[in-house]
Design goal:
The structure holds two protein chains of two kinds.
Chain A (H helix, E strand, L loop, with lengths): L11 H9 L14 H7 L6 H13 L1 H12 L7 H15 L12 H18 L47 H15 L3 H14 L4 H13 L3 H14 L4 H15 L3 H14 L4 H12 L4
Helix pairs in contact in A: 2-4, 3-4, 5-12, 5-13, 7-8, 8-9, 9-10, 9-11, 10-11, 11-12, 12-13
Chain B lengths: L3 H20 L2 H18 L10 H21 L1 H9 L9 H8 L5 H11 L5 H8 L3 H23 L1
Helix pairs in contact in B: 1-2, 1-3, 2-3, 6-8, 7-8
The chains are: A mainly alpha, B mainly alpha.
């Protein structure tokens, strides 16, 4: 085992604890084996060479022997929703046909969430058609009342433009005017006008991810899903999380609304698995997309 | 044979857990589980339903053997080094002495504590190695630290 330093997610209480028990970073695991190897040794799947090394080592190393015994007594947790969504996504892409989600019945809270999800998808299926999704119409703010019919229908995101946008190189009073007009149009849901002005802002500030992001979303909300793809792709390339996750989300919607279902599944699979701000929504959208009638 | 969907729903969770035990990592177990069901999908016309789920488990096991064979090839130099090294025979740290003596700690607590404070793993890595969630790992670590602290405090008195 290679020697390690303390993990990057160490908390203050843990630093205190390692001091109390006299542990130092990078000093303790010389000569020991990786935990995954210890665990797999009991399953009989290791090559002969590795099995021999493990057997010889645990015969004399009390730490690895104890860790092996403890690891093999653990029962792994079952599939998490995100993990299952990724498995089904792989199967759908490789086999060319969607796979229905399994029913989760083993915990009441998760059973409730699964039932809500199935009802959600079932409700959405009534209006479902083959091929590309219905055109984007009547974009609306996030509703305060009952849930929207499909998670794949885009919702206008909150406007979160950092003040630094206008401090970027290339910015001018004309760009500031354009941006002000774009924001005014956005606020009154005038997405075609907003897209026209955001496009000028994005040309003036080509390295500003927010400009490309709001251009892409404005086009999507205005019904031009195809025109949204390039700016959203650029926004994702330029941005870091959470904006990069937002760009991926709307990019997935744009792909879905232009009939690029495989590409949409790839984007949603990426979101579903990354544990970011859109992860849960990505998993729900992935399931919805894959339970569509062929 | 029953529909593929039905077979998938019936067996995927248990097969995944089996895969985690074979390779020790959830992300690799995901890939192997996917490959097993893909193989079933491609061969379902040729497979007798009476062969399931044993057929699926055999595919997972074979994939696990392939995985470890690739790992061994990549780590051959490390393994040769390890074979020649002297190994520790007794726990070195106060932590490990305490772990072996504290009967209130279960295997899952000991594993989390060792992987965190001796191997220096991040919570996400521990979750991957053990099959637990990160929230569970965090909870087990907090519980373990509390127990060990009270044990150490009792020993000092």
């Amino acid at each position: 085992m290679t020697v390690r330093s303390w993990p990057s997610d160490f908390e203050a209480d843990e630093r205190q604890f390692v001091g109390e028990v006299g542990l130092e970073a990078g000093s303790s695991v010389e000569g020991c084996l990786p935990p995954a190897v210890l665990r797999a040794a009991e399953s009989g799947v290791l090559p002969d060479l590795v099995r021999g090394v493990v057997a010889a080592h645990v015969a004399v190393c009390s730490r690895c022997r104890a860790l092996r015994d403890d690891l093999t007594s653990l029962e792994p947790e079952g599939l998490a929703p995100a993990e299952e969504a990724r498995i089904r996504a792989r199967l759908a892409v490789a086999s060319g046909s969607p796979v229905r989600a399994r029913r989760v019945m083993w915990r009441p809270a998760l059973a409730l969430a699964a039932s809500a999800m199935l009802a959600f998808v079932w409700f959405a299926r009534d209006g479902w058609r083959e091929g590309p999704l219905p055109p984007v119409t009547a974009p609306r703010r996030a509703p305060a009342g009952p849930a929207r019919t499909s998670v794949l229908q885009p919702i206008k995101p909150a406007l979160q433009l950092p003040a630094s946008v206008l401090l970027r190189r290339g910015s001018s009073s004309e760009t500031a005017d354009r941006l002000a007009r774009a924001l005014a149009a956005w606020r009154r849901d005038g997405y075609q006008d907003a897209a026209r002005d955001f496009e000028q802002v994005a040309r003036a500030l080509p390295s500003e991810p927010h400009a490309h992001f709001y251009l892409g979303v404005a086009r999507l909300l205005a019904g031009d899903a195809a025109g949204a793809i390039v700016p959203l792709t650029r926004a994702r390339r330029l941005a870091s999380p959470p904006l990069a996750d937002e760009a991926t989300w709307y990019l997935a919607l744009a792909r879905a609304h232009t009939g690029q279902i495989d590409a949409a599944i790839r984007e949603l699979t990426r979101l579903c698995g990354n544990g970011g701000s859109r992860s849960a929504e990505g998993c729900v959208a992935l399931q919805e997309l894959m339970t569509r009638s062929p | 044979m029953k529909g593929f969907d039905q077979l998938y729903r019936r067996h995927v969770d248990a097969l995944f857990r089996f895969a985690v035990r074979q390779v020790g990592r959830r992300d690799i177990a995901e890939e192997i589980t996917s490959e097993a069901f893909l193989a079933l999908h491609r061969n379902q016309d040729r497979i007798d339903e009476a062969q399931l789920p044993a057929w699926l488990y055999t595919v997972v096991r074979n994939r696990a053997v392939d995985y470890w064979r690739r790992q061994a090839a990549e780590q051959r130099a490390l393994l040769e080094y390890e074979q020649g090294r002297p190994t520790m025979t007794e726990p070195r740290s106060l932590l490990e002495h305490s772990l072996s003596r504290n009967k209130a700690l279960k295997p899952v607590h000991r594993v989390c504590l060792i992987l965190r404070y001796v191997y220096g793993m991040e919570r996400g890595e521990i979750a991957q190695e053990t099959g637990l969630s990160e929230v569970q790992v965090k909870g087990h670590l907090q519980y373990g630290r509390r127990l060990l602290r009270s044990q150490l405090a009792g020993a000092r008195r």
